[in-house]
């Protein structure tokens, strides 16, 4: 094949049974279950198990998996010492990536390619490794937030859900209602998997080398950190701060579009209609607004005005608000620091990366694409 496809656009690089997108209809499903049903009825723990195994867990299996995740949220003392050694101004994604890369030193998450060949790795091995990685990565993000703010580290509770533990460990001063916990749980579900995006493809390439699982996840985190991928929700908040009052939206948008600049959080490469995840978060925005009796920040109101203005200008082109637009607003309104938006995305997407790791290594061929050489012809010194 000699055709060149920038960004591998349209190139089929794998076969997968994990998730599916119908961009024309605005449909996203995990293992055949619609994202709407999962966000409404499931939990992050249950959805992660579904992604990893292909089936919903029994009550006992879910209890065991959730317990393993909770246990892994108790970070080893040496790992806490490492986190405390970082300068407090460190970028949160740098801290997360580097800490995850060394998790194999603290947790039993080793991987031996020879054992895989002989079939010595049973399904429980993959569940156990995934639970340890998912639990520890959530704890790293929450604990780093405490450390960089010179606050005492908070331990998880075995009786809490993953989302509740994360919020409690993150900041015990945030006033979190049942709705807020449900919003965090739902956003973890919504960001968990999205076919072969940049970070997932990165983790698949790393998986194909038979690298250890911590390195697979660390590579995905590095890819996710860019503003064109996981960093977009932070860009949304920066954009809204730039706009200021909602009365400024009209003129700001006119200038933005006339200068052909990006409106962060608007449009998605895979969807020609509204991102189904954004539809779900729209309803959560409304519920949060109702719970707070209309007492929301000016930024929240500016965001709502911007969406209306963009609908009027861009909907005919198939450009609508995507999941990053709404997740950033919700996180900000709840009280999650902006620099943790992308790490929170990474926590969620780790479940998808792990699902692709399992799928890749069980039917593996190392990725080795070719190129069209456009350099100099043969020459001599």
Q: Assign the structural class, choosing from mainly alpha, mainly beta, alpha/beta, alpha+beta, or little secondary structure.
A: mainly alpha
Number of strands: 3
Strand content: under 5%
Using only C-alpha atoms, the radius of gyration works out to: 21 Å
Average of pLDDT? 91
Commentary on this structure:
By secondary structure, the protein is an all-alpha fold. The protein is built from 17 helices and 3 strands. It has helices spanning 35-41, 44-53, 59-72, 77-85, 92-101, 113-117, 123-148, 162-170, 178-190, 198-208, 213-224, 232-243, 249-258, 276-291, 298-314, 323-334, 341-361; strands at residues 19-22, 27-30, 33-34. It is globular. The mean pLDDT is 91.
Structure keywords:
381 residues; mainly alpha; 3-stranded antiparallel β-sheet; 56% helix; globular
């Amino acid at each position: 094949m000699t055709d060149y496809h920038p960004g591998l656009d349209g190139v089929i690089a794998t076969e997968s049974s994990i998730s599916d997108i119908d961009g024309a209809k605005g449909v996203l499903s995990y293992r055949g279950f619609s994202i709407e049903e999962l966000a409404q009825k499931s939990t992050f723990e249950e959805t992660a198990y579904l992604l990893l195994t292909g089936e919903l867990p029994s009550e006992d299996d879910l209890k065991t998996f959730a317990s393993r995740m909770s246990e892994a949220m108790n970070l080893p003392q040496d790992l806490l010492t490492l986190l405390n050694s970082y300068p407090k101004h460190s970028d949160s994604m740098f801290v997360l990536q580097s800490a995850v890369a060394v998790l194999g030193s603290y947790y039993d998450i080793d991987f031996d390619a020879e054992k895989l060949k002989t079939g010595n790795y049973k399904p429980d091995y993959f569940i156990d490794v995934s639970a340890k990685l998912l639990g520890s990565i959530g704890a790293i993000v929450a604990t780093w937030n405490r450390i960089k703010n010179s606050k005492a580290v908070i331990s998880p509770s075995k009786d809490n859900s993953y989302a509740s533990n994360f919020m409690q460990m993150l900041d015990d001063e945030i006033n979190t209602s049942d709705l807020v916990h449900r919003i965090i749980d739902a956003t973890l579900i919504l960001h968990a998997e999205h076919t072969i995006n940049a970070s997932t493809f990165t983790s698949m390439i790393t998986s194909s080398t038979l690298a250890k699982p911590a390195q697979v996840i660390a590579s995905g985190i590095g890819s996710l950190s860019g503003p064109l991928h996981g960093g977009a929700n932070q860009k949304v908040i920066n954009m809204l701060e730039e706009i200021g009052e909602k009365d400024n939206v009209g003129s700001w948008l006119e200038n933005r579009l006339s200068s052909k600049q990006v409106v962060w959080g608007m449009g998605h490469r895979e969807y020609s209609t509204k991102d189904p995840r954004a539809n779900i978060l729209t309803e959560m925005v409304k519920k949060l607004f109702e719970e707070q009796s209309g007492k929301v920040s000016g930024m929240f109101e500016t965001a709502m005005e911007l969406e209306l203005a963009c609908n009027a200008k861009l909907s005919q082109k198939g450009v609508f608000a995507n999941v990053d637009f709404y997740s950033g607003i919700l996180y900000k309104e709840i009280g999650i620091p902006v620099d943790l938006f992308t790490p929170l995305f990474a926590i969620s997407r780790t479940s998808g990366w792990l699902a692709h790791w399992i799928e890749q290594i069980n039917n593996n061929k190392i990725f080795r694409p070719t190129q069209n050489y456009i350099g100099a012809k043969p020459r001599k010194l």
